[in-house]
Batch of 3 targets.
Target 1
Amino acid sequence: MGMVFPVSTHNYELRYWLAAGGIHPGYYAPLKGDVSGKIDADALLSVTPPPQMPSTMEAGTIYGYCVGEPWNQQAVFKGIGVPVITDYEIWKNNPEKVFGVSQSWADENPNTHIAVVKALIRAAEWLDANNNGNRPEAVKILSQSNYVGADYDVIANSMTGTFEYEKGDKRDVPDFNTFFRHHATYPYYSDAIWYLSQMRRWGQIAEPKSDEWFMDMAKKVYRPDIYAIAAKELISEGKLDATDFPDFATETGFKPAQTEFIDNITFDGTKPNAYLEQFPIGLKGQDVVK
Amino acid sequence: MKDKIINFLELTGFTWFVPLVKLATGESPTQQLRDLAKMVGIPLLAIVIFLGLWHVGAAKVITSLGQVPGPVQVWEQAGNLVDEHYIEREKEKKFYERQDIRNAKKLEKNPDAKIKVRPYTGRETYFDQILTSLWTVFVGFVIASLVAIPVGIISGLSNTLYSALNPLIQVFKPISPLAWLPIVTMVVSAVYVSADPMFSKAFVTSAITVTLCSLWPTLINTAVGVSSIDRDLINVGRVLRLNYLTTVFKIVIPSSIPMIFTGLRISLGIGWMVLIAAEMLAQNPGLGKFVWDEFQNGSSNSLSRIMVAVLTIGILGFLLDRVMLTMQKFFSYDKNAVIR
């Protein structure tokens, strides 16, 4: 099957879904030089560029893929495939995209950094405003050839509150893309720790690590402090309201234990190693790939 | 006046306009009409038949991106590309206007304030991409010629040097640009490092790939042209005791110009083909990148837009060849030789 990149969200979601169904997606062994991710695999996963995924599947090189829109709706439109599940059903309200910058850029451009974060927050708020009322205009912008470039109808299918599972089977999924609702833009540490736990589960983090290590890593990379500065500036400029954001004074950065996973395993961001112990498939505790 | 125009038309290879000029001056109209029918009518008929076959054949092939575009869809998309160009230019103008207004307000409040004039960072339009491609191929071609012509002249004159270089030339000549590209990319990334480069890395990579693939025809043709000049001319040089450089500039180059230009024409043709492939992979913002991006977009009018680019590439290649042909005719000493 195809996925976007070994450290993409799609890789982890695809692996989670396969493992939840009892299929082993393969381990990585970077210390041994094996980064193909196919050790002990029942299903072989490989990297395919998203725009080429529909044609690669049509050609028969891959049997399926996990990718963001519009490449799934593109396959439906052309009648070459159907989406069997969305990550909304694998993990409700999961984190998908981040805005990341290098430390050196952030150090050299602190004011631009805040300004960009403010612009992103405003854009996210606009996208979700008025009950997804601005989405058609957003789709028009995205369908320009220098952005996503796919047809308007293909993009609209997933951006305007519906999702077409099969030609003719369009269902209402208003939260399929959430940009600002449910505090979607806030960098929760628990999001980072989930991805780190999955990296450990599949061997990209080759050696066992303590819970503190996970927390330290998350705190180094996810910066709610920068987010808070940007948000507070927006509130004082009157562009957004304090109720749009979590309470910065009391927010710990960890969401309460999340239960809405497809295999009903509960995720508590403060205890990543205990979380990994619950999985029948995957590295846990002191395991190392042989 | 009429003769001057006719000479110019024949020089540039646009000989099919000559009967029109002669018609305009009333010179034997029946003869001119017959010439016109032969020179213009028959090619036009062939083009019309081709368009008809294309239109009918295209409708029969359905790909996953929709029907293969026929002439009508391609024409529509060409119009769209021109419109998009004007829309983008409008946006750029408005951007600068807004910036000027902002800066004027800032200066009003505080005459010593530092104002910034930022350049517009919008997308390139189709015409910008055409210009980028032409500029890149020009740079690559000029570098190739500057290397190939001197080396060709010296190896034409000296048998030892020729036998030394020949195996290298024969081995490097057939290498495809796509095989050079990864190596060139890595070398350029490692060597061309600077905080504020004048040329982007993609540009340098594409230009160097064009150079590497297009210098061989010029090199070989120059060497052959130089080694086949009339022995008598070389002997004249020896009799007059001309030094090496004078021999080269006064005797060798003028007599081997036809071969050199043949090589240059072939090189430019190959360079243009190589450029499109190099741009696709090096992402230099020209026609190659346009085709690649349209393919990645996969929208329902992508194929038509790619067709527009394909035709543009063909027409530009033709025009480039015409330019070289004109230069060749201009520089050639034997005005009676037929150069096509």
Note: The longest strand of chain B covers residues 62-63.
Target 2
Amino acid sequence: MTTMFKLNQIKPKTQDAVWLTLMMLTLGNALIAESADPSLWVTVIIASSIAIKGRLVVERFMELHNAHRWIRFTMNLYFLVLPLMIVAVFTFPELFADMTRI
Amino acid sequence: MTDSAITLGGTNPSVDQPSLIAQAVPPKAGRIPGNDAVWVGIYAEMTEFALMFVIYFVAKVQYLTLFDQGPQQLNTLAGTLNTLALLTSSYCVAKAMACIRIDRPQTAARWLYGTLACALCYLLVKSWEYQWNTEQGIGVDTNIFFTVYYYMTFNHFLHVAWGGGAIGWAIFQLKRGAYTADNHEGMEAIASYWHMIDLVWIIIFPLLYVLR
């Protein structure tokens, strides 16, 4: 083997930075839980933090950034659909209540 | 780079960490991390929790007041500590995977001990939280919010417990030299499963403790 591998592996400093970002986002969420009144913007911020945290773990810790494209796609999709559902349910609760009433 | 550099790099103390990482065999592009079987399990678990999230949304739109008051009655400190513990546990697993790729099983095992410590911390905090809830007069049948809360969090609690068992197995395998830089499929499967447990909590925490 004479060629240097081009590394797809996550660098240690990147892992450290991802961990720090996740910690900060979590503490931010906790602060919101304790202080902020419910509003659309608060909901959007929380939903966005779920999307960001999910994507960071999927791409950087789970290392799906170079995995099979369907595995990567479906895992990232999960963290797009759930945050959108959170915002949709907050924005149109009566619509969803009507749709799900037996 | 020679073959010997790749083979011996992990045990040669003169080789520094950055060059070892540069020599590590990278994960193959387009691969299935771990193996097919663990991904069947991961998708099954993610689907199970997705159904619970659907139940949460349906219950929430039907009982908006209860789902507004519920999070304010829960112990946010416990939820936050558990989130920090699980995210840190995932970080330790990612570090362990990086170590095994440069053929450092002992260091990888130490990182996985960190994961086990975080899992234990999660289980203890969650048990304390359930006890705290009881003291506040909160139980499974208090109202629909707490029924959903207990159903979701206790299910997740069980996943952390048996996921911790799998991490313990990975440590045992590392100690007996079963995983190497070239052969660590089993460890990667366990790592992927553990990340899934963390991912689910990333959603549960804001749903139950933050959103009103």
Note: Residues 12-35 of chain A form the longest helix (24 residues).
Target 3
Amino acid sequence: MNQGAKNTLKYLGLAVIGMFFFSFALVPLYNVFCEVTGLNGKIDLSPTKFVQEEPVQGRDLKVQFVSHNNEQMPWSFRPSAEVINITTGKYYTATYFVKNNTDKVMVGQAIPSVAPSNAAAHLKKLECFCFEQQRLLPGEEAYLPVKLLFDNELPESINNVVLSYTIFDVTNTYKDEIVQNTHSMNTKS
Amino acid sequence: MSAVVESHDHHHGPAKGISRWLFTTNHKDIGTLYLWFSFAMFLIGGAMAMVIRAELFQPGMQIVEPEFYNQMLTLHGLIMVFGAVMPAFVGLANWLVPMMVGAPDMALPRMNNLSFWILPFAFGVMLSSLFMEGGAPNFGWTFYAPLSTTYAPPSVTFFIFSVHILGASSIMGAINVIVTIMNMRAPGMTLMKMPLFVWSWLITAYLLIAVMPVLAGAVTMMLMDIHFGTSFFNAAGGGDPVLFQHIFWFFGHPEVYIMILPAFGIASHIISTFSRKKLFGYTSMVWAMVSIAILSFVVWAHHMFTVGMPLAAELFFMWATMLIAVPTGVKVFNWVATMFRGSITYETPMLFAICFVVLFTIGGFSGLMLAITPADFQYHDTYFVVAHFHYVLVPGSVFSIMAAVYYWLPKWCGNMYDERLGRLHFWLSFIGVNVTFFPQHFIGLAGMPRRIPDYALQFADWNMISTAGAFLFGASQILFLFIVVKTVMGGKKATPEVWEGAQGLEWTVDSPPPYHTFSTPPLVK
């Protein structure tokens, strides 16, 4: 094989390796793209910094809360109020009711989504139960808070925003933790 | 002295028996292996299609369980794409590229051997999943997560490994083709003097290098989601199933051009030969293929218009997709212009090639309909889509492969095929393919969803006709097998030129060509 062929082989090999890693790079690229553009109704899963409530008079906005149970998630999960009327630029706290109907310790994780998707970039959440997992004992119930604000830059055309949460059963992922905790509980009692 | 004689023999003829095929590094032998392998896969995938069509002969569940139907559907797609069409084109590249550019062999002959011999193992692993507990993969050839992760049968891991293996095979094949074309052309053969089949494969090989690693990445992410607790595609863990579709189609759309570009090359050769005219618009043919290849990277989301994308993205992907019709139109125009006022004869390869141009164009038009975003919300996941991609893949890719076999088989084995039987095979296939797939346009527009084993009564008549056509098409491929075997066994001897007016270096060597051709490179003027 001559030198030219060796060089071709080298850059083709590098291209293959590069494209393999590029496929993994697509994952963060996709997330960054969705966050920057606010497409897909994806929300940043970390609390935003406290924003000073804006002195400018905001406008009225209707926020609807929706809940879904992912397949095989036996918890009760619903918003305390289905609709709230708010003013943009001010913080509001809404709650979701959740109850573990089983006789097992379970861990749930809620994933949020906003419609229309171009409202997502204007939603600031100071705290949200979706930032962490919920661990509920058998029969335990709770009211999960979300403290949110829609800023004044929300596009004029939007008068109604739907905030949807889907709760997933992630008990298997946290199995070891649960076993440990149950163990420590048993020793305490 | 005897040692010298032995080494002399070693250099000039194939080894005897099975070891010739196991250890061969000869591009002609490996091309033959690829072609026979793809033909075997074509028959296996075809048999699965017969199971599908038999079940759809009448509404209601008759022959198979829905679970098994889904497995047949999935394996039919995977085997036809990765086992039949792609290896057939690689086989043609192995046989023809070195002979067309005046090279003695492929650049990396041992890797060539490896890239063929891992293929039977890849498909062995994939097909063995049929006999596993839980059955074979049942999530469609597009293996969307979470169907292929959370809800997949346990055999999905075997599927993932087989995709890894066949991906490695394709990548090695593509590297071999590029290194050969870029470095081993005969003196005087500049890039713009290369035969179009070589050009089409050069572009295809670059596409393969760019997207097969992405496919490997996608299945690796699935593997990690299933076994190592990651959440690439699992919404509960912060992942996104829609991301899977983006990654898959980033691979998948260039993949569909990987399956059609070599066909463009083949059609150009055959139409020019049997029109007894120089190909019209060689340069524009090359640029059209390059444009199609580049555009193929920016249209992937037209497969997922209904997934919930913003309007701006839907518009972008709609226009980008429609733009592909322009270079494709250039190619169709050039083929027609080549035939215009030519002295055309209708031997079997030409029949297949003309049929390719006409029916591929029909498939292209239904593709344009699907590209219209608002219309796609109606057509998405209906039989209209099935009709569309079967029109571009069966009378497109598959007919071009058959045309190529009839065209170059006399060169490969030195015997002419039986022209009467060849034409019979063509007409049976032509009628079969249209009777099978044309009615699927109608039932698709009427709303029949794809990937279902049972359907509403109003679709019964067209489905019955479609199944009848499918069995005709399937049976006529047995005739194809018979014709090829008969030709290989004997027949009228072919001249070196084989066809009156055929152009290219491969026609300057004997039929069949000696085991080693162009050990001294020919001079291209």
Note: The beta strands of chain A are 60-69, 76-79, 83-87, 92-99, 106-115, 123-128, 134-136, 141-150, 160-169.
